[in-house]
Amino acid sequence: MKYIKQFLLLIIFILSIVSNSNAKGIKFGNVSKDEFALKECPYEKDASAVILSRTCSVDLSYSIIRYFYHVRIKILKEEGIDQANIKLAYYRNNNIENISGVKAHTINLNEQGKQEVAEIANSLIFDVDVDENYGEVRFTMPDVKVGSIIEYKYTTNSHFYSYLDTWYFQDEIPTLNSSLKVNMPESFRYNIVMFGSQIQAKYPESKNNQWTLTNMPSIKEESHVNNYHDFVEQLRFQLAGYFTRDESTLSGSPIFVNSMTTYEELAKEYSEKVNFLGRTNFAKKQLETILDGNENKWEKLQKIYDFVRTNVKWNGKYRIYPGNSPPNVLDEKSGTNSEINYLLVLLLQEAGFDCNPALARSNTRGLIQKAYPLLSQFDQVLAFVELYGKRIFLNATSPYRPFDLIAEKDLNYHAFVLKKGNPFWAEIKPNEKNHQDVLITYDYSNSENPVCKLRVRENGYFAAKSHKELTEAGSESWMTSLFDLEKCDFQKDSLHFQNRDDVNLSLKMQCDLKLENSLDQESDYIYVNLFNKKDLKNPFLKESRQYRVDYNYPRSRSYIVKIILPEGYQFEDFPKRKKIILSGETGKYTLDSQIIGKELCIRTSFSINATSFSKEYYGDLREFYSQMSKMMGSKVVIKRSN
Where residue 85 sits, what CATH number does that domain have? Predict the structure, then answer.
């Protein structure tokens, strides 16, 4: 009964905090006893800190947009003290934005129960250039400990009218109260887009100018998620148009300026700013060094792609406009993503291919909003080829991928193809041939010289990742991720690769390793683990899921493990045949076993055929992995015979 009362009191505290903030607005520095009394977040008891209130009031005028932010956070545990390190980002390029009016303090209760305020000095507030586009105002709150309430406010001054800053109702810690108010003059028209079930249910109409959500859960970290912000409760605003005076008339009557563009207009305006594809003479000379004239279309495509991917290194920068010329890109052997892929488009066009650049968005930045023609949502340029009825996207920024394999980040469902006079959306389909086949043989037939024979074959994304790791980390690191080297005497020169220098073919490896230990001669029973420890881990241990499960591409893996025994030993127990199938055959796992004489063969096969699963499907997926991990964790029991 005592704990029920305490819980009810916590709920009352929260409701009083929320109701007061909604009714009067939270005043800076005016912290209530109820806020200090809060010891934990009732709906997320493991939370290290909680946002008591995060509000913003937006004032629009023709001269500037001002965002007035106010944030109040309660520190609940030691781990929550990290919340005292504040970083406020803004877009600094061309002085479009800046931050002013920063004010911050920490409030603690002393032994007498009185509030003590520690304000931050202006000299401890720093403005840092993060990169050429973004800056951050950084500071650390003073005298922070468990039980502290930290509070800060600031103003973002912006000249960017095309869209207002997205408002997220959720954060990395739970939020008790999140509120946005937009003071918009009648002369402005913005389209409002709501993401999330709660905001859409509470505000079914878009006539409001203030939105509030309470008791919002934190953004949880989960495996197999491209971008959390696709699922966070949020509001987005895009400028539809505005009224201005018609200076061509004597009365200066008001006229409406429509700022909503179309994707066709966006494609035209963007393409007019790119001069990269006009260097046809340069492209013709390069093709003479790449092609010998005897290639078919597919061979030409592969040769041109291989030329670009091996001669120009990506500098890691995402730009949708190429800033360098084709000759300079080749001379410097380095370029941005757009420079590399525009060079590929230029050469393919000159070689007679139906090829165009395509604007895309990395899936780690979230889904593309096809309804809103905003150039700012794109960060990638791909090459798009139509050949013999097939549509192929190419991305030559990595030396480790074949021409028909774009980066995993590029797998974001759609891209906008900039075909002159007829731009269009095209579906991005992942490569379906992503396989890894592993054969491991533990041969104890010669008890004095036991050996392990390892055979691996990979293609698709498995092979691309292996090519990268082998080159950048080395063969031992690659082997460790694949196989338990503790069992063997590993020697690098024992590895023999096939097609290691040709990413267009399957990667193959074979090696024979000496086993460190023979079968235990002292025990009557020997227990053997068949699989690497990392292969036994279930990535879906949590009982519930907040977000969609992203796989991006279909994949399959097969393991064949053979154990050959010497005389005097026999198999007492081993995993038996079993099959697990996800509904709709979106995933499958099978295990087969067979004994022939002194040889045991265990065959396993795992496949995922879907690119993503909704969170409602999570329970089935979790159980699928649980059963699979249990089966793979089964041991082989070997008995020493008399």
Answer: 2.60.40.3140
